[in-house]
Design a protein that fits this description.
Largest sheet: 7 strands, antiparallel
Number of strands: 18
Strand content: 25-35%
Number of domains: 2
Helix content: 10-25%
Low-confidence stretches: 1-36, 42-50, 359-414
Amino acid sequence: MRFKFTPVLMSTLLLAACSGDSAIDGVKEIPNRFGNVVNALDDFSSSSTGDSSNARGLKPNEVRVTMELPVNLAPNGEPTRRNLRIVVPDRVEVYKTDFTLRNDIGTVSYTSATDDDGNIILTFEDGVPVGPDVVVEAFYQGTALKALAADADRDIKVNPFSHYLVEQGLGGYDAIDFQTVMNCVDTSLCLNRYVWGTVADQVHDFEIDIPENASISSALARLETRADFKAYVQAMADYALLGQDTSGSIRASSADYNSVFLGLELGQTFRESSALGAGQWGVRTAEEEQLTDTGTAFLYPALTLTSFDVFNINVTSLATDIPYDRQTLIHGSDDIGSQFFFSRGTDLWARNSHSSAPGAATLTPAPSENQTRSGTSAGRQSPVPKRDRPRQQPNQRLDSQPLLPGLIHLCPCR
């Protein structure tokens, strides 16, 4: 077992050496660590999900390989999650394979190096593999375990969990299944090709303790008895078989509607010192907005209804952009009880816009006669408009602007 003392640890030993046995006792309690490598045990808690990523300092075409074994096979290894031990493999091989799991099908263009912490770094000349046809096999004192090279976080953990995925996930295919999977992997528009990077990473999210006295075969048998883990691997392997037809087609359609907007308000105003707290009525009506000085382009009140169909999931969204003007009537009184009215129009209130970002929409059936009489509509939409931007002085209090529900009636653009 090779490990590396950091400068801080060396200083501790030198300072404590004069105390004899106490220095030895302290060192005995420090577990084997491999430099600055992230141990998944360090930042794992009952509230965390996923295993730690150790991709720091890696280039996009590089992966880091970590081997984890049962206690029985590596008693001096560094303890980590699921009752496993981290070891530095004696050697690592990378090769192409298929559903037969043979290692003589083809070679992979890669280089292997060992970083300062003793970790093996693999550099793939053609980029990190995406499909299940490239396997990383690690060896330690006569024990061999496999993992898929397609790992989403590029921190490849070679352990019984990854080995189970290779044997039962990839090894569970026949020739037709494997070819179906590879057809998807070789097609850029087939999104299911990214299943393998996900499952290769997420098999390590299952907190299943491996017995200390387990061999590789008994560890795999232990995983086989876990219905949740077994079902997950099987489900992801089946999902990868869906092929391009289920993910390569994205359909979208949209329709534009002219909109009529009417907003009514009743509240108080605090903008003018001569009418603090006076009552205020207001109306807001949709208007066209000129976009160019020459009058050649206009923005009309409109609503866009868009429908997306992806992965057989239909999503409908609404987006609106409705310019409107605001006019108000102030009703106040002076100290002797005389009442007065002031009208405020576009000379005071800048044109605003009732706009909304695309969001989910639900279309209701056409309204009944009674609903129409009460002022509702199948195309009704009444989110609160954005705050008006009046021409005001700094630190001046705005009006309170409670609104009665506005109505937007939709009709297809012609």
